[in-house]
């Protein structure tokens, strides 16, 4: 979109460090930031929080893939 992190930060009234840390994956998108981004871009705050959730899930899977592969699915033996 051709928007710098500096301009975005100024336009939505947040510190530039917050924007930079989010872009680097060192900080989460909070509800406050999601609401600001949704007002600025004309979409929903849930969109931004959903992106954060997707990112968190992917990072978690990559970090513990082998551990998750060792978990056996639940089997209902009462039936």
What does this structure look like?
The protein is mainly alpha-helical. It is 66% helix and 0% strand. Helix 1 crosses helix 2 and helix 3 packs across helix 4. The longest helix has 25 residues. The model has no long low-confidence stretch (mean pLDDT 96).
Lay out the secondary structure.
Elements: H1 5-12, H2 16-23, H3 31-41, H4 45-69
Helix pairs in contact: 1-2, 3-4
Would you tell me the overall average pLDDT?
A: 96
Our measurement of the CA-to-CA distance between the termini, rounded to an integer number of angstroms, reads: 56 Å
Unreliably modeled segments:
none
Tally of helical runs: 4
Please indicate the percent range of residues in DSSP E strands (runs of 2 or more): under 5%
> What's the total count of β strands?
0
Q: Please provide the ordered H/E string of secondary-structure elements.
A: HHHH
Structural class: mainly alpha
Cα gyration radius (Å): 18 Å
Provide a compact summary of the structure.
The protein is 66% helix and 0% strand. The protein has 79 residues and is mostly helical.
List keywords for this structure.
66% helix, elongated
């Amino acid at each position: 979109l051709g928007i710098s992190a500096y301009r975005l930060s100024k336009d939505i009234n947040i510190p530039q460090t917050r924007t930079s840390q989010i872009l680097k994956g060192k900080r989460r998108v909070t509800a406050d930031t999601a609401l600001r981004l949704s007002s600025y871009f004309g979409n929903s705050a849930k969109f931004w929080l959903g992106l954060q959730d997707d990112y968190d899930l992917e990072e978690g899977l990559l970090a513990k893939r082998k551990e998750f592969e060792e978990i056996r699915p639940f089997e209902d033996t009462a039936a």
